[in-house]
Structures are given as structure tokens and as C-alpha cells.
UniProtKB/TrEMBL annotation:
It comes from the Eukaryota. This is non-specific serine/threonine protein kinase. The lineage of its organism: Eukaryota, Viridiplantae, Streptophyta, Embryophyta, Tracheophyta. Signal peptide: none annotated. It is found in: Chromosome; Cytoplasm. SUPFAM superfamilies: Protein kinase-like (PK-like). One of its GO terms (molecular function) is ATP binding. Residues 43-62, 91-113 are annotated as: Disordered. It catalyses: L-threonyl-[protein] + ATP = O-phospho-L-threonyl-[protein] + ADP + H(+); L-seryl-[protein] + ATP = O-phospho-L-seryl-[protein] + ADP + H(+). Pfam families: Haspin_kinase (PF12330). It comes from Urochloa decumbens.
Length: 616
């Protein structure tokens, strides 16, 4: 099937679009035998009684999978906090620090963590005692017959405090004192939607303000007070949510939870379990099938779920990359939890912003041990049939840690999925745009890596003939026509989000290779375009990066439509839509484009759907 792959690319090149993927050898990786010539016929997709063909995956190029020097960073926000323009984009250490159990002493003695300690104990006691938590922000999940509740605000708060504590303990004093402090102001008139918002574009400088935000009543220990006398101890003292005098708090014993310990807590585990234990909660181990792979994760089908296994904290290089660290995993978990909170159940119309377009994360589990033989079988099976670009997992030792993301099955990625008509293409575009618009509105979400491997498509098996998906955008309930195709967005590794407590982002400037993809390649150009837009202030809010990926998506659709030969009208329509997209500033703007007008329905219009469907 290598030749068909070649054809696909030459078609795009001929159309003035994509260049063939640049495959530069950066890491000495195992090559997949070309002769294995694989064409994937995905039995999951059928249309009009026929099998829906799927395209073979393009080989990942070294530049697009390399995030060799990573570091997920975070800054904390408080309601009403005003961001100040930062002199330079903040750089992160080349490698995230190793998790450690002890808070190291600084030159001015151990940080005073009495309030944080008290807070931890309060949160922990609450988690242990709570039997049926009721706050709306609680997300209930199920594993087997067990119901699992995640208190996102408490998790975020605990994570924030320990992060600050770690920074205080691990950074030399001069680093901590380097950045000027910016006082935050809480306006009593703040509306709920403006509470967590990163300030709008600074019209004088022509770019967004991107300084660090200091939580109200908190002082980020990486920041220095304008008043020189503020020292680390008092800074940390101010971290507490309650404004009690420090002296009244319980004594500090010098210990703070590491990211690893917090990961365990989020997973409601006291110790890691084995991979087999996790998988056996969802399926018979013999039935496990590998579905796909990324640089960091291997995705397996386990019963009705998909389990993505990501090794972390180990020293061995995996797939040419250093393994992720607990800190990064924890922040990815926080990101997934935040996006999970956008989900709405049937009849749940309370949320101002909601959608189901981001893959549902059903659970997370921390595992340890060698790779399970059943997973190795599934891995080898996939390799034999489709050819894996990843390293064989046999080398993992009994010390190795993994996080397993238990996800809903989102179907087949767009790269391998054959769209059968223009309606499916339009539905794909409206669903992705609506999801991005909702997440943008709810939490300043930017995906920042929405290539066609990160969009999953599945045919709607439900008996409901309406074929719509519902979402709420700024309090307005809407329905998008799906034509029977459900779209899920995955992989939030590069994403930026404002959780309301913190801004989570990845400093992409630490990975220059990401911007060195071949000229003309649509995906490579998208990273470069994001770099122009953000001016490398990756912590800032730039919803236009979502528009960049929507434009990329139209290009992918144009390419896919070519093989359907739908004619000049469709081509013209898509191209003029793409042109208009370039003038928009956010996914929300894009959603208001006339291209979507007959694909979006308000509540009252839903009843006329069958009519509408035949009209389209
Ligand atoms: N929920 C899911 N349902 C179906 N398939 C999935 C799901 N999650 C992941 N996959 C498959 O696994 C592949 C790899 O997943 P993903 O992109 O999340 O991994 P990753 O290691 O984070 O990737 P990257 O290299 O882009 O960082 C996807 O392209 C898809 O084929």
C-alpha cells in the first residue's frame, strides 16, 4: 500500500498543497518493511452496506513526533487576576525535575508549609470521608461496577500548592527572586465568565499579554515581590486559601506530595498495579487488540474502551524520546479532567458551555512492571499486520511505571478514514469547530496539534435517526448535524488550557525541531503559523491557533474530497470557506461562518431535522 500512499501525496503536491512528508533520520529507528504493503480495511466503517475503506497511515516524520526537549509548564491564575506583559517568554528547564519525596532546603531554610500541610490534610480527609460528593464539578466515572469521583478543584489546588512548594525547594534563591511580582486585583464586578479569563489582546503592543498570573492572596514563589522584604517563607505562607495567621497552622514536617504521589491519589491508588490488573477490569486479556500508536502511547482496545499505555519516569529511551515525567503526566491528567468536565449527559442542560467532542477519559491508572505478555502479543500482532514505528516493549523492566488512560473508543483517525461524501466532510468540520469553540469559551482551550491523526471518527450506531450532536456555547443550546458520523478530538499533549486555577501549556519553543518540518507541508506550516501568532509566548491565550488547525483541516478535507471527484462546486465552496477562515480570530468566529448555517440547529429547529436532512 506504500504506492497508494505515494499517490495520495503526489495528488496533494500536484494540487499545490502538501509536500510529500519529509522523513529525516534523527533517531535510528527500526524501519518497517515496505514489502509488508498494508492496506487497512477497517471493518468498523461501512456505508450503504459496503465496507468503508481506510487509508494506510502515513509514516510519522521525525520532526512531527519529536518533542525531545519538553517541559509542560504552568502558571497560576486567580479570579480577576490581571496578566502583565512579560519581557520574554518564560523558558522551562530542559528536562523536568525528577520527582522527589522531600522538599529540599533553600538557603533561607525550609519553606514554611504549615498552611499547605493543613490544607492537604483537610482535602485528604474530605476525600476519604466523602461517600457521595455532590458538587457539580465532581465527575463520576465507572470502573467495572465501582463509581469513581474526581474532585477536580481539590486536585488542582493540591497540585498547585505542591508545585509551588517544589519550585521553592528546588530553585536557587536568585532564580526565585528573578521575576518581578505583579499584584493581582479581584474585581467584585467580575462576571463568572471573565473570572478565569486571560486578558484580551493588548492593543498597544498588538499582542496578548502573557505575563505570569499570581493567584489572589497567593504569591508564586518563582516571582519576586516588588517589596524586597517578601521572602520565600512569607510567599509560601500566602499560598493558603484561608487567610489565617501562619502561627496558628499545624507544624510543618518538611514533606510535600510529589507529582507521582498525587498521580496515585488522583487514581485512588495507594500503590501502582500491574497492567494486567487494569486491562482485566475491562476485558478478557486474550481479546486485547492494539489499535494505534503515538510517540508516547500505545492504544489498545479493551472491551468497549480504549486503553492508552504511556510509560513514564523511566530512564530508558522509548521510541527515540525520553520518557515523560510524573509532573507532565499529572498535568495531562488535569487537562483531560478539565475537558471531561465539558461533557454533558442527556437532559443535562445546566452547563453554560458543554460538548462531547473531546474524547471521554473514563479513568486513569498507575501501573508498574514489565509489559504484560498479552499486550506484547497484541503489539506484535499489530506490528505484523500494519507495521509499528515504535520500539518493541519487551525491554521494559519490573521497575517501569506506566499511566493507563482509559478512554472511550473514538473510532478511526481521520488519516485512515475514508469520507464517503461531502456531507460527512461538512459534518466533520462543524463538529470540530463547535468543540473547539466550546472549549475556547469555557477554558481558553487551544489544541495546538490537531493533525489528522488526532481526530477520530466513528459511525453513529444509535437508533436515533436525527443524527445530531448537542452542545452549549455561552448558554446557547445548539445541535450540529452529524450525518451519522461522530467526531472525537484526542491527544492534548501540546494543548493549552486555563483550568480556572492554572494555565497549563507546553513551552514549544523548547523544541525547535517542531518548526523545522518541510516547507509547504500543511502540518509543518501549521506549527510555524502558531509560532508567528504566539510570538513564542506559549503560555498566552491565542485562540487563533485553533483557526490555524481548522484551516489545516479544510486542506485535509479538500485532499480527501479529491478522490471522490465531487466536482468544481464543492472544491470552490471549500476553498472560499478556507479563505474566510483566515480572517477569523477564534474557532467561535469560525462557527458563525455561513458555511455552517444549515448544519447548526437551535432546539426548536430540531423537529424539522428529517426535512432538513433530505434537503441537504
Ligand atoms: N480513544 C481512542 N479511540 C480509538 N483510537 C485511539 C484512541 N486514542 C488513541 N487512539 C489511537 O492511538 C493513536 C495514538 O494516540 P495518541 O495520538 O493519543 O498518542 P500519543 O502518543 O499521545 O501521540 P503523539 O505522538 O501525537 O503525541 C491515535 O492516532 C489513534 O489511532
Amino acid at each position: 500500500m506504500a504506492s497508494r500512499e505515494g499517490d495520495m501525496w503526489s495528488e496533494i503536491v500536484a494540487s499545490g498543497g502538501l509536500q510529500p512528508p519529509h522523513i529525516g533520520v534523527v533517531y535510528g529507528r527500526r524501519r518497517v518493511e515496505e514489502s509488508s504493503g498494508r492496506r487497512i480495511m477497517d471493518a468498523r466503517g461501512s456505508f450503504g452496506g459496503e465496507q468503508r475503506p481506510s487509508f494506510p497511515r502515513r509514516k510519522r516524520t521525525s520532526w512531527n513526533r519529536s518533542l525531545s526537549i519538553r517541559g509542560r509548564e504552568s502558571i497560576f491564575v486567580a479570579p480577576g487576576a490581571q496578566l502583565q506583559l512579560q519581557q520574554k517568554p518564560c523558558r522551562v528547564p530542559k528536562r523536568p525535575p525528577k520527582p522527589c519525596n522531600r522538599v529540599k532546603k533553600t538557603t533561607s531554610g525550609p519553606p514554611d508549609m504549615r498552611k499547605e500541610k493543613a490544607y492537604f490534610e483537610e482535602v485528604d480527609a474530605f476525600e476519604l470521608m466523602e461517600e457521595s460528593p455532590s458538587p457539580k464539578t465532581f465527575q463520576s466515572w465507572t470502573i467495572g461496577n465501582q463509581s469513581i469521583d474526581h474532585d477536580l478543584p481539590a486536585i488542582l489546588e493540591r497540585w498547585k500548592i505542591s508545585r509551588l512548594a517544589r519550585r521553592a525547594s528546588s530553585e536557587p534563591l536568585f532564580d526565585i527572586m528573578e521575576t518581578p511580582i505583579i499584584p493581582s486585583v479581584l474585581s467584585n464586578n467580575s462576571t463568572s465568565s471573565s473570572l478565569f479569563r486571560t486578558p484580551e489582546r493588548d492593543t498597544r503592543s498588538g499582542r496578548h499579554t502573557t505575563g505570569r498570573v499570581i493567584p489572589l492572596g497567593y504569591t508564586d514563589v518563582s516571582l519576586k515581590s516588588t517589596a524586597k522584604e517578601t521572602n520565600i517563607v512569607t510567599s509560601l505562607g500566602k499560598l493558603n486559601i484561608k487567610e489565617e495567621p501562619v502561627e496558628d497552622s499545624i507544624p510543618w514536617t518538611g514533606e510535600a506530595l510529589t507529582a507521582f504521589e498525587q498521580l496515585l491519589m488522583v487514581c485512588k491508588q495507594s500503590v501502582p498495579v500491574t497492567l494486567a490488573e487494569v486491562f482485566s477490569a475491562y476485558c478478557e486479556l486474550e481479546s486485547i487488540k492494539k489499535l494505534g500508536e503515538g510517540t508516547y502511547g500505545e492504544a489498545y482496545r479493551a472491551g468497549k474502551t480504549v486503553c492508552k499505555v504511556v510509560p513514564f519516569d523511566g530512564d530508558i529511551i522509548v521510541n527515540g524520546e525520553s520518557q515523560k515525567r510524573s509532573e507532565e503526566i499529572l498535568e495531562e491528567v488535569l487537562l483531560s479532567l478539565t475537558l471531561n468536565n465539558l461533557r454533558s449527559n442527556q437532559g443535562d442542560d445546566e452547563k453554560k458551555d458543554s460538548c462531547n467532542g473531546f474524547i471521554e477519559t473514563k479513568d486513569f491508572r498507575v501501573c508498574q512492571g514489565p509489559y504484560d505478555p498479552f499486550l506484547i502479543n497484541a503489539w506484535e500482532d499489530f506490528d505484523a499486520k500494519r507495521g509499528s514505528e515504535n520500539d518493541h516493549p519487551k525491554d521494559f523492566t519490573s521497575e517501569q511505571y506506566y499511566i493507563v488512560f482509559v478512554l472511550a473508543d473514538g473510532g478511526t483517525d481521520l488519516e485512515s478514514f475514508a469520507l464517503v461524501d461531502y456531507n460527512e466532510a461538512r459534518s466533520l468540520l462543524v463538529q470540530v469547530t463547535a468543540s473547539l469553540a466550546v472549549a475556547e469559551s469555557a477554558c481558553e482551550f487551544e489544541h495546538r496539534d490537531l493533525h489528522w491523526g488526532n481526530i477520530l471518527l466513528a459511525q453513529d450506531e444509535s437508533p436515533d435517526t436525527n443524527h445530531t450532536v448537542s452542545f452549549a456555547l455561552q448558554g446557547m443550546r445548539m445541535h450540529a448535524v452529524t450525518f451519522g458520523l461522530n467526531v472525537s478530538i484526542i491527544d492534548f499533549t501540546l494543548s493549552r488550557i486555563n483550568t480556572g486555577t492554572a494555565i497549563l501549556f507546553l513551552d514549544l519553543s523548547a523544541d525547535p525541531a517542531l518548526f523545522q518540518g518541510k516547507k509547504g507541508d500543511k502540518q509543518a506550516e501549521s506549527y510555524r503559523r502558531m509560532k508567528e501568532i504566539t510570538q513564542e509566548h506559549w503560555e498566552g491565550s491565542f485562540p487563533k491557533t485553533n483557526v490555524v488547525w481548522l484551516i489545516y483541516l479544510v486542506d485535509m478535507v479538500l485532499h480527501k474530497m479529491k478522490s471522490l471527484a465531487l466536482g468544481a462546486k464543492v472544491d470552490r465552496e471549500l476553498r472560499s470557506f478556507k479563505k474566510r477562515l483566515a480572517s477569523y480570530e477564534s474557532a467561535r468566529d469560525c462557527l458563525a461562518d455561513p458555511f455552517f448555517s444549515d448544519l447548526l440547529l437551535e432546539d426548536a429547529e430540531l423537529s424539522s431535522m428529517p426535512q432538513l436532512e433530505s434537503d441537504l
